[in-house]
Records
---
Amino acid sequence: MLGVLPPIYRRGAPGFFVSEAVTASIHSQFIEYRGRHYAGYADLAPDGRTWTYSDIDRLEAAANASTPTLSWFPPDGA
């Protein structure tokens, strides 16, 4: 999907959004930050909410040993 649909860039928002909405004004947002990649849903409505770098910092600070880390599937060598 990422190789076909054109990305949307929004001033002040990190990363990019997939141009096809999930529903109404909700789009997938993809961010590369400090060598890691993040994805989530964001609301592109005029009063909507998108992910920020401070959101990522807050989520990373709250992570602990039981927080899962996603990786490529299948794992290398499988």
---
Amino acid sequence: MTGPARIVVAGTASGTGKTTIATGLMATFAAQGLRVQGFKVGPDYIDPTYHRAATGRPSYNLDTWLAGPIMVRQRFETSMRHADLAIIEGVMGLFDGRKGTRDGASTAEIARLLNAPVLLVLDVAHMGQSAAAIVAGFQRLDPRVRLAGVILNRLASTDHEATVRFAISEWTDVPVVGTVWRDGILALPARYLGLVPAQESMANIQALGSIVARHVDVDKVLAVAQSAGPLPELPDEHVADSAQPVGLGLTSVTGRKIVPHIRLGLAYDDAFSFYYPETLEAFANTGIEIVPFSPLADPVPPADVDLLYFGGGFPEIFAAQLAENRSMLAGVRAAARRGTFIYAECGGLMYLGEHCIDAAGKSYALAGILPVITQMGTERAQLGYRELTMLRDTVLGPAGMRLRGHEFHWSRLLHPLPRKYAAYRLDGPGDIWEGYASETILASYIHVPLAAYPHTIAWLVERCLARRGSPQMTGRNDEGDQT
């Protein structure tokens, strides 16, 4: 029995060119008529936008810590039902994962979980024969991870290529399947959170695919992917782990529709684009109607919605435009006063605050719903996984509920929120409080993968239905205020 064709594009570290190579391979195979399904290891909103641009399909994140091994396998198999080839882009270096573990939540763990062969992208800009030592180390560290080939990136000359090729062939049995010279591939534009999202960058994905096809033996890559074999049985410890609240399985949400016609207003434009497709699919499969709107361009939020959802993104880049759209800000404030539920993550929290101060020190007045001022820094403020406990009943769940999420941002609160507003207590040394919660609003810097917590979506639906019958919501409308 054969499994789906699949291959992992991994790196020795961040910045080696994984996204460029992976996206180029996706575009190449899609141009050949294959149905290519992209995946990204770990929590990442931006790289999957390039996968989608190359394949025409949503790209899904595979993270065993956030969602659990069972859900990762479930997500992979479901996504591959109508696909010919999976290309899985890794995160950081091949064995880099959650702190305090050998390689938990790493690309290597995903490769083992899916029995997927690995292509290693190696930046050789400042090395010669030593490249062989790196390849040998990556090959031998964990024999359960099959290193099927190496792509040499940022070669300087034909002599440089010959030197590195010879060393790898002398000291390892890993084939070189691609050689990319410096400036040989289109560079993808970047900013402080990583790459610029594909919808902003206007990168020529088709040209990238053509260039990758010239530098990489794509026939060899496809043959390796097709030889991956059947998916392995899950080890007993993974099955046991899946019994925890993390990763309850998509079927508990997607197996039936709970209620019809709950309306969710989704802030979606260049300022707010950080949403996992599996979360939006879980909403839709539960019977929630998703109504996209643009805080940048639309005059008001959508009418008669039960919830406004402001995801992450780059509101600080577009702060002037967001501040100028006064009718939208007024409409969001009016919705908050009426008791419309509001859920905001990271950039959404910034938008709901009083002011956003950009990296140049200029302040922009925003929604003013939360008593916070955010300020952009010149270095990263937070990055990492978070375990948290809900401190009070919120739109997502009851007090005491445990969740997992992740955090990555360069902005900070200018003044800490008083503890009386805190939404979560974070695991770690001492008391760490985070976010803002009220009866109708939940806002935090933490991104929670809601599809991994079907009970949060069910709770949200129940709260929305209960809210509809409350006196505050009687005769509601969406006329903005005049402030």
